[in-house]
TrEMBL record:
This is ABM domain-containing protein. Residues 14-81 form the ABM domain. The lineage of its organism: Bacteria, Bacillati, Cyanobacteriota, Cyanophyceae, Gomontiellales. It holds the Pfam family ABM. InterPro entries: ABM_dom, Dimeric_a/b-barrel.
Amino acid sequence: MPEFLDFLKHKFAYVARAEFKPGKFDEAEQLFEKAVSTYKDGFKGAYLLQEPGTDKGIAVILWESAEKMEANQSEALQDIIKQMTPLFAKSPATNFYEVVSEIQPDEE
């Protein structure tokens, strides 16, 4: 029964949509990877998406729960965010979502 209950637990996703100053996406990518490396308990994965040919992107960070995400807010993370802030062309739009459906490909 515990496996079934684990199956019913949903992940949560922190999503940030951002546009960086011209030519700054690569630097932002390095800082994103550095920030993600600070995450520990409750972290379930991360994606950084870039709109081809632009400095626009979307970051998706998956968490076990909102509480686990909050618990990972560290001084090291805040320092990285301070380094990233001047790279933005404008403030990013952020939201927090519950992952209600996750479909994995069939393995053959």
